[in-house]
Specification:
Strand content of chain A: 25-35%
CATH topology of the domain at 2-84 and 155-240 in chain A: Rossmann fold
Number of strands of chain B: 2
Largest sheet of chain A: 6 strands, mixed
Largest interface: A-B, 25 and 18 residues
Low-confidence stretches of chain B: none
CATH class of the domain at 2-84 and 155-240 in chain A: Alpha Beta
Number of helices of chain A: 9
Radius of gyration of chain A: 18 Å
Oligomer: heterodimer
Radius of gyration of chain B: 19 Å
Mean pLDDT of chain B: 90
Strand content of chain B: under 5%
Low-confidence stretches of chain A: none
CATH architecture of the domain at 2-84 and 155-240 in chain A: 3-Layer(aba) Sandwich
Structural class of chain B: mainly alpha
Order of helices and strands of chain B: HHHHEEHHHHHHH
Chain lengths: 242, 304
């Protein structure tokens, strides 16, 4: 079953200068998808438009069959779309528990504590000091808290914007281990990532975006040697390649 | 030096502190210095006065004085209505003016200037409706009772101080321990992320106006009860309100209250030390000193 469908989506910050120029793709439930591309290709704008943070000028986004195009983020999370921004993705002046409690507010009262405890079980680093300010966490722990917050409401689709940005290699490994566990749990995962090797190793399928359009859509494995990806990044479309 | 300055300062500080709470919340969540906040105090006082007259006229049995205080039962009831009307005024102003500017992505300075203009309009309208003549909630004379240590206070004054501390404590508990308070703190830190977390930011903005305008109305009535009400009373309080909010640290409710008390006490002692004509200058001096030495205020976080 296709859980997320994007049809001919046009989006950006200025109607006359669309950054995403007619992108279409569908994601089956449980699949993990990388969105790769050179700088300025429109990857982050695409997922932000899907998450209601950037205006859509045309096209549509359907989530579990419902049209959610242009809905505000707080409505989208209630429909099952979790989004983790690249930076500033936790409330640093609130405690770890308070960060999770805010997300838990969307659930029925009896399930709130149960889901918070489930997240502490999934991310033991966070459980060690739940009353500490989130601002005191390391970069990797912050990404874990951001992921825990998004997963707490059991979204149908989880979208992450460069979860490894600015992290040390060790922490990148931790973050991708976490994402692997999330994906293995059956969560549909969409990932924009600059760390191409790690993203290809994690996801089953990859969408390559160049200049706001889909240049390639297929399994991740064939892209792992880098040659095809390099040519795609330079603007060649997959079907035009030998 | 007369120790009575302590009581005078606490009374003035209570009004300033309650008023500064709304200002600090608006500043922290909507990110602009709201010049109309002082006018919410004045409008709250006048609306409550009108309702008190109306209630007293319709229900004569409510005209009995609530001993040992100077006012009748009609005043507390009128304040409830006054709060509701002041909140409606604030929400209408946000809907018609500030909300539209936010939706257009207007810079903070544009919104500040708009609030300055709206403040003048609100003040003039108040003067047009009620005239510039002072008005009173009560003309009954109260005798200040000795409290010990050379301090004296009337029952009304003690009520104002007591109510202020109760209101601030309740509000602080709500903001620090309830889901609503967590959402307010989240929006204050990062409104875009708050939406991603599932918080309805527009609802939190409305809540901020409701709390701010409600507190402003109570502060206006308190000021009016102890002295008098005038259309310019809010405008005259603006500088102490801003000084208290900044001294306490933007976004901090106890900070605004403590800032208000410090400003009130400083003003009261200044009257005794350097003379009444310097009273208004004290807020300005404190404001400048705080901005130079600790711009984040007593309870604010540096860089935040």
């Amino acid at each position: 079953m296709t859980v997320l469908t994007v049809q001919d989506l046009r989006a950006g910050y200025d109607r006359d200068l669309a950054i995403v120029k007619g992108v279409s793709f569908g994601v089956p439930a449980g699949q993990s998808l990388s969105i790769l591309g050179p700088n300025g290709a429109g990857k982050s704008t695409l997922i932000k438009a899907m998450a209601g943070l950037v205006p859509c000028f045309g096209g549509a986004v359907h989530l579990t069959g419902q049209d959610v195009t242009g809905l505000a983020p707080h409505h989208l999370i209630r429909r099952g779309l979790g989004f983790v921004p690249q930076t500033e993705n936790i409330f640093t002046r609130l405690t770890i528990r308070e960060n999770l409690q805010i997300a838990a507010q969307l659930l029925a009262r009896p399930r709130r504590e149960e889901r918070i405890e489930a997240m502490f079980t999934m991310f033991p680093d966070l459980a060690a000091r739940p009353r500490s300010l989130a601002g005191a966490l390391s970069g990797g722990q912050r990404q874990m808290l951001a992921a825990a917050r998004a997963l707490l409401t059991e979204p149908s689709v989880l979208i992450l914007d460069e979860p490894s940005a600015g992290l040390s290699p060790k922490l990148v490994g931790q973050v991708f281990d976490t994402l692997r566990r999330i994906s293995a749990a059956g969560v549909t995962l969409l990932l924009v990532e600059q760390n191409v090797r790690a993203a290809l190793a994690l996801t089953e399928r990859t969408l390559v975006l160049v200049d706001g359009q889909v240049a390639h859509d297929g399994p991740s494995a064939p892209l792992a040697d880098g040659a095809l990806l390099g040519r795609l990044f330079l603007g060649h479309r997959a079907e035009a390649m030998p | 030096m007369n120790p009575q300055a302590i009581i005078d300062g606490l009374i003035a500080g209570s009004t300033i502190g309650l008023g500064a709470i709304g200002l600090t919340l608006t500043y922290s969540i909507l990110r602009f210095a709201n010049f109309t906040h002082g006018d919410f105090l004045a409008w709250g006082a006048y609306l409550s006065l009108s309702l008190m007259g109306l209630i007293g006229g319709l229900l004569a049995e409510l005209g009995v004085r609530l001993a040992p205080f100077s006012f009748t039962l009609a005043l507390p009831l009128a304040v409830v209505g006054g709060i509701a009307l002041t909140v409606l005024l604030a929400l209408a102003l946000d809907k018609l003016l500030f909300g539209r500017l936010r939706a257009r992505g207007a810079d903070a300075i544009i919104i500040v200037m708009a609030s300055f203009g709206a403040s003048m309009a609100l003040r003039s309208l108040l003067e047009f409706i009620y005239t510039a003549q002072p008005a009173y909630f009560t003309t009954a004379l109260q005798i200040a009772k000795p409290l010990g240590l050379g301090l004296r206070a009337t029952p009304d004054q003690l009520l104002v101080i007591g109510m202020t501390f109760v209101l601030v404590a309740v509000l602080h508990l709500i903001v620090t321990h309830s889901a609503m308070g967590r959402a307010m703190r989240a929006v204050s830190e990062n409104p875009a992320l708050a939406g991603v977390y599932g918080i309805d930011v527009a609802q939190i903005v409305r809540l901020t106006w409701i709390i701010g305008a409600g507190m402003a109305c109570i502060a206006g009535v308190m000021a009016g009860l102890l002295v008098q009400i005038r259309p310019y009373m809010g405008f005259d309080l603006l500088l102490p309100l801003f000084a208290a909010a900044i001294l306490g640290g933007i976004g901090s409710i106890p900070g605004a209250m403590i800032g208000g008390l410090i400003i009130g006490l400083a003003e009261a002692f200044a009257v005794q030390i350097v003379g009444a004509e310097w009273r208004a200058a004290i807020s300005f001096v404190i404001l400048v000193l705080v901005l130079m030495l600790r711009p984040q205020g007593l309870f604010g976080k540096a860089g935040g």
